[in-house]
Prior knowledge:
Low-confidence stretches: none
Structural class: mainly alpha
Distance between the termini: 68 Å
Mean pLDDT: 78
Helix content: 55-70%
Strand content: 5-15%
Order of helices and strands: HHHHHHHEEEEHHHHHH
Strand order of the largest sheet: 1-2
Shape: flat
Largest sheet: 2 strands, antiparallel
Number of domains: 4
Amino acid sequence: MSRKSFVRDKLDLNRMAIKKWRHEGETNIYIADKLNVNSKTLQDYCVKNKFYTKKGRPKKWIFTDIQKENIRKMRISGMMHKEIAVQYSMPTYVIAAFCQLNKIYPKKEIMPEGMKKCTDCKETKLYECFGKNKRNTVLGLSSYCKDCKKEMRRKWYYEKGGKEKLKKQKQTTEYKLKNSEYAKLPYRKAWKRNHENERSKNDPVWRLNRRVSTNMRCSLRNGKEGYHWEELVGWTLID
């Protein structure tokens, strides 16, 4: 039995359950997780059999007046959708949809002039305490203060394998400096171009071979298609 037919039989066995869940308002992802099948396959199956959700919000996600007020307060205070969802044991998208529908957004703090709030430690500090970041088009400053950034770098260096990465990077840099090819010019392409120019000055046979090859490739519609020009012409430079 193929994998496709096995999944189809599995869905047919749970047909009534799928219909019930969809009628109650469960998402395809939730049902697919329950049945351990691909969500896209389940979606196609539901469309084919016309298993649609009931109009309106599902009963299990109806909020009481006290819940609505608490969610409003938490969201205005600056709590994330995920944090609120954990408290109420609900999916994050339900809280996000509720807040968007009722236009509940976090309250924007009015910062004093020359001050900025750190995203990590949540402290309000002077602009001098933040590093520069060109991607931030408003102020040109980093989202994290220098102290938090320092702590992040320390964790990356000691806990997330940053020490080994820097060691390898240092070895590569040392190799490039010692190697004559990289010592001459910073980029490989520039070195190659320089090398070809020098060779064309000193080696007339190589220069002639190069010129014939280039002119032939330019004159042919599809190029040489990987062939050497001598194979196409039928004679060599020596002839």
